[in-house]
Amino acid sequence: MINDLMKLVSMIFLLATAVALADGAPAQSPPNIVFLLSDDHSVPDLGCYGNRALKTPVLDQLARNGMMFTRAYVTSPQCSPSRASVFTGRSAHAVGASRKSQ
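RESULT FIELD:
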């Protein structure tokens, strides 16, 4: 049931995106998207988010010239299950990546 709902939501999103892109506007080049994912990395670990002790000049420049997330949430408080959710679009529990009780 949940999988069917997720498929329906995905299809609606794709359809809405296709309609928005096909509005008759002249073709444009696709956006440049860089998605950085690192292990055990938190907001306080980058200069662009306010850390003055750590030097991250290249990432700070990317942040100045691009988009920064100021309210981002994860599906799990652990790195591996959260990464599995990002890669699959499903919850960590649904893909079997959550911590199992002994």
